[in-house]
Specification:
Structural class: mainly alpha
Shape: elongated
Distance between the termini: 57 Å
Number of strands: 2
Order of helices and strands: HHHEEH
Length: about 100
């Protein structure tokens, strides 16, 4: 939960970052914050034991979370635009119908 909250809190900054270097700095900052709380762990499927993953894997997880959140935000925005267009079309049709009745 804390992980996704951190990513969402930096989403606009990440989206507006103009270079890979700037995005990398944001990823590093999030990694630092999460490592203070214990870092990224993964459960071994065979033994059931938890182990800390490498920085490379953690960075990939953070990057993927940003991509997922950006995609979700984009889809929500598109759905909202479609809904607004439908509502606008309904208002036009209603106005045309009221004009026709008069």
């Amino acid at each position: 939960i804390r992980f996704r909250t951190l990513v969402r809190g930096h989403l606009a900054e990440f989206q507006n970052a103009s270079t890979k270097l700037k995005k990398g700095v944001i990823l590093s900052n999030i990694m630092d914050l999460l490592q203070k709380d214990g870092g990224f762990v993964r459960q071994d499927k065979v033994s059931g034991r938890w182990y800390e993953v490498s920085d490379i894997v953690a960075r990939e997880k953070i990057s993927q979370c940003f991509r997922d959140e950006l995609l979700h935000t984009k889809k929500a925005k598109q759905e909202n635009q479609v809904l607004q267009q439908q509502q606008q079309q309904q208002r036009r049709m209603k106005a045309i119908g009221e004009t026709f009745i008069q």
